[in-house]
Specification:
By secondary structure, the protein is mostly beta strands. It contains no helices and 23 strands. The strands form four sheets. Strands 5, 6, 8, 9, 10, 15, 16, 19, 20 and 23 form a ten-stranded antiparallel beta sheet that branches. A five-stranded mixed beta sheet has the order 2-3-1-4-7, with no helix packed on it. It has a five-stranded mixed beta sheet with strand order 18-13-12-21-22, with no helix packed on it. 35% of the residues are buried.
Length: 310
């Protein structure tokens, strides 16, 4: 059975056309419905047999590609369709989308959709929103003995901070994206509560407490800081106790940040294990064939793994 992967602007006065994928996979057809006055692009993804989650990738007319987010079904349902809302679109830009399904231990991708140009009427951003560093000398210091990352104060012991961008980001939280140097595993961790900044007054970030064994004794790279929005989609959207259908996680473009150890810049570090480990997200990239599978707790914001790979 052919599955349909729909991308559409979600308002009235629409027209539609069919866009074939740019690979040779005939199992996926991309329908595009465009509205001239929409504030977002909705990506509609069908359930695929055996899938545990699906990542949504986006590229623009500048050819910038990044992992836009993840959809995690609450249960298996061959008739289900999931909607990923991309509301981080920019005036006058053209976008293409791709879905990557995690099925058992492998990835299955669609091709890229046809380009969709955002209407000038849309109240959208003028540039990619991303976390904001308070100064040029804002960086993490890695302590190898304690396996912690700490944001270092600015010169004169002034507070350094990582903040959410200007706009409606009160429901987003800051997340730290890391991966193994070989790209096999990649994930993201919450740095601060929704709507909050992360500062040099915050407690050091303990990697031993959150990394799973896949990361221990491997070279680890900090990929940057992202803004993350976790949304619960229920059968009855207005009822909090209604059964969960699926969860979406959306990420902004990452903000790069320097990491130092003993006052010297480093490109990677290694963490040795302890007895205490918590789950985390799978945040790997598009070309990774390994990745990692995990689940999000159905009734909490505690995501076990997110896949943020390239």
């Amino acid at each position: 059975m052919k599955r349909v992967f729909n991308l559409f602007f979600a308002l009235a006065l629409c027209f539609s056309f069919v866009a074939c994928t740019d690979d040779e996979n005939d199992d996926y057809i991309i329908d595009v419905i465009k509205s001239e006055d929409s504030m977002r692009i909705n990506v509609s993804v069908p359930y695929v047999e055996g899938m545990s989650y699906v990542n949504i990738f986006r590229k623009d007319d500048f050819k910038d590609v990044f992992n836009l987010g993840q959809i995690i079904p609450a249960s298996k349902n061959i008739n289900a369709t999931y909607i990923f809302e991309d509301n981080l679109v920019f005036d006058g830009r053209e976008y293409q989308y791709m879905a990557r399904f995690k099925i058992n231990d492998s990835y299955k991708t669609t091709g890229w959709s046809d380009a969709i140009k955002v209407s000038q009427k849309s109240p959208v951003f003028t540039d990619d929103p991303k976390p904001v560093l308070s100064s040029e000398d804002c960086y993490f210091s890695y302590d190898a003995e304690t396996a912690t990352l700490a944001l270092v104060p600015a010169e004169g012991n002034k507070v350094n901070s990582i903040s959410l961008p200007t706009g409606d980001f009160s429901k987003y939280n800051l997340g730290l994206a890391v991966s193994t140097k070989d790209g096999e595993y990649s994930t993201i961790f919450k740095l601060a509560a929704a709507g909050s900044s992360y500062t040099s007054n915050s407690s050091p970030f303990s990697l031993r407490m959150i990394l799973t064994p896949n990361y221990f004794n491997k070279e680890i790279v900090v990929k940057g800081i992202v803004c993350q929005l976790v949304s619960k989609k229920r059968q009855k959207p207005d009822e909090e106790d209604s059964p969960l259908r699926y969860t979406t996680v959306q990420w902004t473009a990452p903000c790069e940040i320097l990491v130092k150890s003993d006052d010297k810049p480093i490109s990677y570090f290694t963490v040795t294990p302890t007895a205490s480990n918590d789950g985390n997200y799978d945040f790997s990239d598009t070309g990774v064939t390994g990745g990692r599978f995990a689940k999000i707790n159905a009734e909490t914001d505690s995501a076990q793994f997110l896949d943020y790979s390239d």
